[in-house]
Every structure is written in C-alpha cells, then in structure tokens.
Amino acid sequence: MKYEESINKLFEAVGGKENIQNYEHCATRLRIILKDDKKVDKEKAENVPESRGYFFNTGQHQFIFGTGKVNSVYSELEQVMGGSANGSDDFKDNVYQNLNPVQRVVRILADILVPLIPALVTTGLLMGVRGLLLELGLNMDESTLTLFEMLTDTAFAFLPVLIAYSATRKFGGNPILGIVVGLMMVAPQLPNAWAVAAGNADPLVIFGLDIVGYQGSIFPAIIVGWMVSKLEKWFRTFIPQMMDLVVTPFLSITITLSVMLFILGPILQVAESAVINSIVYLIEAPLGIGYIIFGGLQQLVVITGLHHSIGIIEISLLNNTGENIIQTLTTVSMAGQFGAAIGASLLFKDKVKRSNAISSAVPTLFGITEPLLFGVNLRSLRVFGSGIAAGALGGFVTYLLGLTSTGMGITFLPGLLLYTGDWIAMIQYIAVTAISFTAGFLLVRVQGSAIRESFK
Q: Would you name the residues annotated as active-site residues?
C-alpha cells in the first residue's frame, strides 16, 4: 500500500487501531472519532507522514492530507480497518454527540444548505455568462433574454422548495412531502412576496392576516421541513397501516402548511428579515469598517467551523439584491493568508519543509484553506496575524471599489467566473486579490528572522 507508513504512524498517534470508533473524510481531511481521546499523542499526530497538519475540533481528530490524496488514504485505511466504518449517517450521529447546542445548530444548517450550493453556483455562473455575452456586444431579443431569466432566476424563485426538500431529508422525513409543501409556499395563487414588497400586488387577507408567498425565504422553509418530518413520524406511531398511505401525508401537509401560513410564517419572515438586515448592516458599517473586519477575520471563522452558516446570508443577499459582497471578502481573506503562507514557506531552509508548506498552500487557489491554515499559518501567530492584516487591507480596498460578485459557492481562481459579465469588475477582483496576497507576503518577509525562529 502506498500510504502504509502514514496509516501505521496515524495508529500510533491515536492510541492504536482499536481506539478508532469511526472515521470519514471530506475534500481535504481524514476525520476520526476515538473511543478515548486521552490516548492521543499530539506530537506524533502533528508528524504523521504525508499529513499537512492535525487539529482536534467538535470531537473529531482531523488529519489534513489534501484534495485527492485524502481519498486514497481513506481507502487504504478502510482496507486495514476491514471496512468497519459505520457509515456517514452513523458518523454524523457520533459527531452530533460531541457538539454544543450552538455547534449543533450550525451543523444542521450546513447539512441543509451545503447540498444546494451546486445549484446556486450554477445560477451565478449563468448570470456571468449572460453578462459576458452582453459585454461582448451580443444583441439579444426579448425571447432570448426571457430564456436567460428562466436559467438565472428559477433557483431563487423556488428556493423554499429546494430548502424544504433538503430539510425534510435531513430530519428523516419523506422529501417528496417537503417538496409539495415548499411548492405550496410559492404557489402562483399566493401574491408574490417581491411584488407585494414593491407595491405591485396586494396580499391576501384571511382572518385579518396578510398572506403572501414565501419567495426567497430560508428559515420558514427549514421549519417546514422539520415540521412535516416530525408530524409524519408521529402520525405513523398510531395511524393504522392500511390508512397510512392517505391519512399520514394528508395530515402532515395540511397541518404544516396551516401553521406556517397563519401562525409561524409571518413571525419567521419578520424575524429572518431583521436578523439578515442586522448582519448586512454590520458588514456595511461606515468607512468600510465591516469590510475590514470581515476581510481580516473570515478565515478565523473557518477555523471554528462556523463558516457554513454564512451561506444563509449569501443566499439572502443574492435573493434580495442580486449581489454578494461576502464572496469577494472571503476571497481577499483567503488571499491574505495565502500570501502569508507563501512568504513563510520561503523562509524554510529545509527543502522538504518548504515543499510541504507550499503544497499545503496551493489548494487555497481553488478555495480550500484548511491545509494552509492548520499546516502552516497557525503554527506561528505572526504568520496568521500577517494574513489577517492583509485580508483586512483587501477588505478596505474592496469597500473603496464597491466590488461585489453575482454568485456564491466558489472563491479565489474559480471565483473569476462570477465576474465574467463585467471586465472592469474582473480586473478589480484580480487587483484586490493580488493586493491581499502581496500584503500578506511582505508582512511575513519583513518579520523573517522572528518567524523563522518561531517555526523551530
């Protein structure tokens, strides 16, 4: 086996093969849950061959092997373990047991929203294609523009359907029921929420309540998925099997929709709007303060694992304004840390260490920063601090330029695709990324001797 030495050293670090309770992998990391965390030898864990870093978070011992390589390591580990991984669902159950309430909420939101990102990324890219064609001088007739609107607007017009489906699936219900309730939330018979907000339509008035569609709503759709799942399971505990096929879905859908339309819906819509608007207000604080803070500290959020929850804000921004400043600020934050990592790697005299540091940083170009953060930058507060300062500078320049993207889900080099509709915006995107990278690189280089000493 190619990674036999790595796996053997990993076993030594975690207290032996028999101490492994469960394991899984993501795009870059091998995640292991142990029976006894006290048996871990941290020094050995940080020096597992082929691993670019190690950290412990939310009950998981995470070894960063990088994109592609982690799949091979996992496959060989599975062979050695005799294929004894309990499966992704059991792994998630084990993870949830180790989370505090806040972490559980964030993880649930991530499990619901992350599967939607490919669809939303596609929508953003299609917007970029449309903009690029117009920028190149292509004249589109009304029918062609209408076709493009169908391609770019559908995902957001039916966003509650996608979220209700994903939430119902997450909570163990029948996803088809979630789809049906989601469709009812945006049914054409209900006045369009955007049209009502713009004054172009009037809400329905039932029992003295103003009823509108839920176009663009996020939290109501999540609650719908949770309710329909719980009701379906509860009714099945006492409804006779011969009646289950008809009665259970009828009651689950009817009760869920009634509660949402007349009780929870109006409250959740107001609460969701207030929360999202407050966060957006903080980001857009005067003099670019919010941009500076977010650009500097976004990668700190990645370390905590809370960054998945930011997707809610991005979806709301795109839905309400068609623009997403968070994608831009996330990229400059990455670029600052990337520049700091490259600057630090060139300080290593040992060619192997230098090569490992650079290889840990490269995935950042494609939007994956964990190898860089845990393998290089967090090993020296000076390096990590330099990346923060550089990201903050990039955030301020972004504020001065007024730069935003048209999509979400992709950053750094792939993120260029979100700016193809406007050459000036693309040049500005490259410029703020380069400024952040250069600042991070130079800040590390001027501290060369002190940083080199901290890595010993």
A: 26
